[in-house]
Amino acid sequence: LARRPGWREMVHSRLVSVFGQRAQRDAMRLFSLLTLRAASLALLPFLPLISQPAEAREKPAGGVGVEQVTPGGAAEKAGIQAGDALLSWVWTHGLSANSSKVSGKIENCFDWNLLFVERAQRGSVGVSGERLEKPVKFELPSVPSGDWGVTVRPWMGERDLKEYLTGKELWGKGEGEKGLALWRRLAEGAEKGPSLSCWLYLKTGDAWVKERRWEEGQRAYQDALRVAGALKSDFARCRIWLSAGKGYEGQRELQKAEAAYRKAAEIAQGGLGESLMLSLALNYLGLVAEKRGDPE
Questions:
Q1: Whole-angstrom distance, CA of residue 87 vs CA of residue 159
Q2: How far is CA 266 from CA 106, 118, 154, 269, 281, in A?
Q3: Are strands 85-92 and 101-105 parallel, antiparallel or unpaired?
Q4: pLDDT of res. 53
Q5: 105 - beta bridge partners?
Q6: What average pLDDT does this structure show over 68-77?
Q7: Which whole-number Å values give the CA distances from 209 to 213, 215, 219, 224, 247, in the listed order?
Q8: pLDDT tens-place string over residues 135-193
Q9: Whole-model pTM above 0.90?
Q10: HSE-CB for 31 with a 13 A CA cutoff
Q11: What is the per-residue pLDDT for 295?
Q12: Would you say residue 3 has pLDDT above 80?
């Protein structure tokens, strides 16, 4: 079992969810010093907890799951741990006497991404969630970098989670083609749930572009856009077009990149209003126009 792709990370996820991140680190450090037989015996008392189906034990009523927390980052300092569920947020703009309170639900990864893009640099954000079915609250400060140091993922069933983690491990081992093929298969099977499917297609596209596999990346982005229509998220569509534009820039297809950024700006202006996403799209549009030698 220890040699199977994804097994170690699966145990990591279970231990974090059941015992907390610090206890998990100590446990994994101990297991690394033991033989496989001894480690298996050490895990026996906890198997009823670790082996529960993810659907029954992990998934709360909505929200997103914390996949990774950057050591020393704002999220870790606020007390967020891997395995936590993030469900809702509230933001208080304290820059003027007429401060306005804004709040919302976190229903998918795109809701979370919109939150940190638009709010992380503008003031502190209170986030409510769950840990082991108990309510928890965190206060995330304003950060100039716009990065709280936390990675989230959609909730998945046991089989889907195992396949996702296997793909991630293969990618980390340099077997990206096999890993991304697993993610694509998982995305295709999840299209009835557009949030998970769109997130996987986008993640796959970004990974292909990072490897300079432009054609595969753009195909994944087009699939993400197709699914994003059912998701009804202007932020998701804007984010995908921005990624597609970056891919075209990498190919030096500047005209296509400009068209992608223009589409992102149109979506942001129509659905998100005067937002940082709109500013980002316009900035990319200006930079690519400069590369093309267009002063207008």
A1: 23
A2: 24, 17, 27, 5, 9
A3: antiparallel
A4: 43
A5: 88
A6: 94
A7: 5, 9, 11, 14, 6
A8: 999 999 888 877 899 999 998 888 888 999 999 999 888 898 999 999 999 999 876 68
A9: no
A10: 19
A11: 65
A12: no
Residue reference for tokens 């940082």: 276
Q: With beta carbons less than 8 A apart as the criterion, state whether 226 and 260 touch.
A: no
Q: What pLDDT, on a 0 to 100 scale, did the predictor assign at position 159?
A: 87
265-183-168 Cα angle (round to 5):
100
Amino acid at the residue 53: P
3-state secondary structure of 73: coil
Which tens digit of pLDDT belongs to each residue from 82-93?
999 999 999 865
Kindly state the DSSP code that residue 69 receives in the 8-state scheme.
E
Residue with tokens 């129509």: 270
Distant-in-sequence, close-in-space partners of 142: CB < 8 Å, separation ≥ 6: 120, 121, 122, 123, 124
| Selection from 181, 89, 76 nearest residue 137 by Cα | 89
Amino acid in position 12: H
- Cα pseudo-dihedral 200, 204, 205, 206, rounded to 10: 100
Q: Rounded CA gap, 48 and 57, in Å?
A: 11
Most confident among 49-53, 60-64, 101-105, 230-234 (mean pLDDT): 230-234
Distance CA(244)–CA(239), nearest Å, equals 9
